[in-house]
């Protein structure tokens, strides 16, 4: 694997052109508007590991999906990716639009460098973007201050607690009076090698054993792990089971053949929903 998916986009980037045309991004718009529109557009791409498992099987090893592939696949069949491929693709778009953006890493309870997001500089100040957790409006970081920021979404609230003079940022979710710690951002740009090592390590995670998908639809969060499906709104959670490829495709806006092929790949591995 020779191409660096974090490299600055070429001037003639087909991915940037296709993405900008599809979501009607105007390169001449103010920087903050561009960053917010690009991040909001990326929230349309589902988080899903189906494309990841299929490419991993085809190439028999680590198989990163770069920005061109992620964007082209979304436009063709409604797919998205996992956090590393989605972050690399959004980085490609933001840099292609002329913005200064850098990837960052985050730790979750099951390991270091197991999530990622972006910093984008607006008016000389770093702002956080994380479409996976719906931080879609660039959130100014307060520097070395310890404080809490609240970000409302359609179905919950995000609490960002700045610790150790801003050297780490805890992300918590709050819904119906319950608060859960999800991850801790390290708000310093990650070196390309460090980011790519974390991305490559993700191919060995447990989440490669079963279908994992999430998207936002009509203000609700849809979530599938294995065959366990839930629809979460601001006030309620509905749970059911999804086994059939057609039902999964319909719920998450995917091409049915993609889902069938991915379920078959999990089955060949001896993993079933």
Write the layout of secondary structure elements.
Blueprint: H1 14-23, H2 31-42, E1 47-48, H3 50-59, H4 67-77, H5 83-96, E2 100-108, E3 111-122, E4 125-130, E5 135-140, E6 148-152, E7 157-163, E8 168-175, E9 178-186, H6 192-201, E10 212-217, E11 220-225, E12 228-232, E13 237-241, H7 245-252, H8 256-268
Antiparallel strand pairs: 1-10, 2-3, 2-9, 3-4, 4-5, 6-7, 7-8, 8-9, 10-11, 11-12, 12-13
Helix pairs in contact: 1-4, 2-5, 3-8, 4-5, 7-8
Number of structural domains: 1
Describe the strand arrangement of the main beta sheet, using strand numbers: 5-4-3-2-9-8-7-6
Strand percentage, roughly?
25-35%
CATH class group: Alpha Beta
Shape-level CATH architecture: 2-Layer Sandwich
- Largest β sheet strand count, sense and barrel closure: 8 strands, antiparallel
Helix share, percent: 25-40%
Helix/strand-derived class? alpha+beta
- Number of DSSP helices? 8
Order of helices and strands: HHEHHHEEEEEEEEHEEEEHH
The gyration radius over C-alpha positions equals: 18 Å
Shape: globular
Instruction: Quote the CATH topology.
Output: Arylamine N-acetyltransferase fold
**Total beta-strand segments:** 13
> In whole angstroms, how far apart are the ends?
31 Å
The averaged pLDDT comes out at: 92
Runs with pLDDT <50, length 5+? none
Molecular structure report:
The protein has one domain: Arylamine N-acetyltransferase fold. Helix content is 32%, strand content 32%. The chain contains eight helices and 13 strands.
């Amino acid at each position: 694997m020779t191409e660096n998916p974090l490299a600055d986009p070429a001037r003639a980037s087909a991915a940037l052109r296709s993405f900008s045309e599809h979501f009607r991004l105007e390169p001449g718009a103010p920087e903050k508007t561009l960053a917010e529109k690009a991040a909001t557009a990326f929230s349309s791409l589902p988080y899903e590991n189906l494309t990841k498992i299929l490419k991993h099987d085809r190439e028999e090893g680590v198989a990163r999906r770069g920005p061109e592939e992620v964007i082209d696949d979304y436009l063709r069949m409604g797919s998205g990716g996992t956090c590393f491929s989605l972050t690399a693709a959004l980085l490609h778009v933001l840099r292609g639009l002329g913005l200064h953006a850098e990837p960052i890493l985050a730790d979750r309870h099951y390991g270091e460098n197991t999530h990622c997001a972006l910093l984008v500089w607006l008016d000389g100040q770093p702002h956080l973007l994380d479409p996976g957790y719906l931080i879609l409006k660039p959130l100014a970081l307060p520097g070395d201050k310890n404080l809490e920021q609240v970000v409302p979404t359609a179905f919950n609230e995000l609490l960002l607690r700045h610790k150790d003079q801003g050297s780490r940022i805890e992300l918590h979710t709050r819904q119906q009076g319950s608060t859960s710690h999800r991850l801790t951002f390290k708000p310093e740009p990650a070196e390309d090698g460090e980011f790519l090592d974390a991305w490559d390590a993700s191919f060995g995670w447990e989440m490669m054993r079963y279908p994992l998908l999430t998207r936002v639809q009509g203000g609700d969060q849809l979530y599938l792990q294995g065959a366990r499906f839930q629809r979460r709104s601001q006030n309620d959670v509905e749970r059911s089971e999804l086994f059939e490829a057609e039902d999964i495709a319909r719920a998450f806006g995917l091409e049915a053949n993609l889902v069938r092929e991915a379920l078959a790949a999990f089955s060949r591995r001896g993993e079933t929903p």
